[in-house]
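To close the chapter, one final illustration. This time we ask the reader to focus less on the individual chains and more on the assembly as a whole: which components sit near each other, and how the overall shape emerges from the parts.
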Amino acid sequence: MERVTEPPAPNPLLEVRDLTLRFGGVTALDGVGFAVRHGELFAVIGPNGAGKTSIFNCLNGVYRPQQGTITLDGRSLVGRAPADIAAMGVARTFQNLGLFGHLTLVENLMLGRHHLMRTGFFAGMFWWGRAKREEITHRAAVEEIIELLELEPYRRMPAGLLPYGVAKRAELGRALAMEPRLLLLDEPVAGMNLEETEDTARYLLEVRRELGLAMILVEHDMSLVMDLADRVLALDFGVAIATGEPSEIQHDPQVIEAYLGGAA
Ligand SMILES: Nc1ncnc2c1ncn2[C@@H]1O[C@H](COP(=O)(O)OP(=O)(O)OP(=O)(O)O)[C@@H](O)[C@H]1O
Ligand SMILES: [Mg+2]
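The assembled structure is written out below.
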């Protein structure tokens, strides 16, 4: 059964209702509902195994939920292939890095634009004329992202050789290269030191200011979530236990209980 934790927002970018996902006997998501507004930074929190990554896997078509609806600007996403959902404007970064290690940073970002290209990246290397012009346009877009994320010094470096914090930023760049309307960030600061975490927070705010896209942030670092998010959804054992502004969530008895229960 869906638990309504908040009144619906008018014309949300993303609307998820009654989302239910099972793996055999495990219910990863149990009637989860939430909405993300245009330009909003929406966070999803919860203890390990709460179902956070499962939400992303449903949103981008990797898993098909047994029940529920997901709409992006009113168009249903359930049952579509991941590539179609990406083309509709949903991009994602991964909990573990999703870059091609042997390709340079620039090449990885160009691949992020693949679905936007009519002639294709590899065809573009062999065809002149339209393909060449198209490639120049895409290069320019990639260079803008490189500048925004201050990745210039690493442009020609194979992604596999990038320092960890830089590689995470490069993955953010790859997702942005897709020109998404909704960006899904799965633990963008996992494994980072304090300085790298603060840098990432700064880049996320910068991206948001410059590009104005909506983001869903899954993150265990509570101070980052509380600093950045407009609103937060708290999950526990696949159930949405609270939705609200960071200050409300921090003081929600069920949220406190879920975290203390997990720590005990
Ligand atoms: N492919 C799968 N097959 C079977 N069970 C799965 C699968 N994916 C997720 N689960 C189960 O679903 C539940 C939710 O997992 P999920 O990865 O969504 O949690 P999470 O909140 O992202 O956790 P973490 O904070 O550890 O990343 C867990 O019980 C997990 O074991
Ligand atoms: Mg996860």
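Strands lie at 14-23, 26-36, 41-45, 67-72, 75-76, 90-93, 182-186, 214-218, 231-236, 239-244. The mean pLDDT is 88. With these observations in hand, you are ready for the problems at the end of the chapter.
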